Amino acid sequence: MSGGGSLIERDAAVIAANQKLRFFPASIVSASGSEVVDATGRRLLDLSAAWGANAVGHAHPKVVEAIRTASADGAGASVLSATNPRAVDLAERLLELVPAPAPAAGGFGSADRRVLLGHAGTDANHSALAAARAATGRRRVIAFHGGYHGGFGSAQAVSGVFVDGGLAGDPESALLDYPAASGDPVRDAASLERVFAAIAAEFAAGDVAAVIVESHQSDGGIVVPPDGFLRGLAARARAAGALIVCDEVKVGLGRTGLLHGFAHEGVLPDLVTFGKALGGGLPLSAVVGPAEVLDIAPASALLTTAGNAIAAASGRAVLDVIESEGLVAAAAERGEHLRRLLGEAAAGAPEIHDVRGRGLSLGIELRVGSTDPSAAPGAGDADFAKRVIYRTWQLGAICYLVRDNVIELTPPLALTAAQGERAVELIAAAIADVRRGAVSDAEIELYRGW
Ligand SMILES: Cc1ncc(COP(=O)(O)O)c(C=O)c1O
Description:
By secondary structure, the chain is an alpha/beta fold.
């Protein structure tokens, strides 16, 4: 290794800021399960799992073994111009795990389905939308404010998180409001009515190729929609001949307490995209959908190393571990546990304004300004939250922010009860410390986050 100084200083000197989203000077030099060790030798509890990518835990022995064997075999860098057994095996397993919808009015959705393999959620969503446009012969895409579908290119251009923040969006797309469950059935019915009216208006011209949607939003602030949103959306899309692309990159594969986030509403999307957890820490993504869509434009979605055997072997091992270790049920149980503990912590921490989510995709919304739930969070809330996650890191746990003032918890799905208790203790202690002024301006100055 070259260069003097700490790892953080060396990183600052060589790694481009364009690919950083930093909240504190974190580093990881080794990790196992739900714990990581940083460059100073500190052991930290990982409550993010690298934004969900390490859902089965760091260095899971079965994933390590699968990667080791596949790399030693040297069995194929790609499915581009030659196939390999590990990519085919992964695709076959994904098709078993993702139920097919009944054929739609537009004619899509035969039982004959395909898997398109990629490297990241961004390219999976790009490929899904491009295929939907090619298959329908239409250009328009409907997406939602607060959505996140990719960190660059066409998937970023339909991501509400970026477009709401000022990025020029895809001119052939529209962003609609994503409804949030309020707990009040009357308000929920009214917000569904509003969003369905907006959707009907968008579909009226008959030019919508696809609707891309998260089964609940993550980066938009952990927003769970009222029951009926996905069902109503899917029914309207099908009637209009548009395809539903459900982005399961962040919440899919067990995190919500069901294998698929969309299963909370009993909906079967036309196309489903996976990423993050699927790779077990390696770059791997997938689109699952009808052959009429994913076979429509041969040689139009090319990545040299897509379907490489090492990432595919890791993905297959991840799917096996989720099943054999009962991680879907574990996420549901630990999620309930964490919510209860956070509810108790809120009694002594008035800044905890709301705790929401599904399974182990949880958001803790912090407020220090207005307590009016209908008021938008202010800069003071975001500043407080920034200090709280900084302090949490100082105290021994990693978690990050979404939508400025919401702490997101997406820990490994096998987080133990004791680790869950420790997590809540650390966050509660951090809130109390920040209330007393523990984190200085100078400490957070370098970390702009989003
Ligand atoms: C819902 C969702 N979709 C897509 C992506 C993009 O995935 P990636 O960063 O792997 O390209 C993300 C990343 O946060 C995400 O949360």
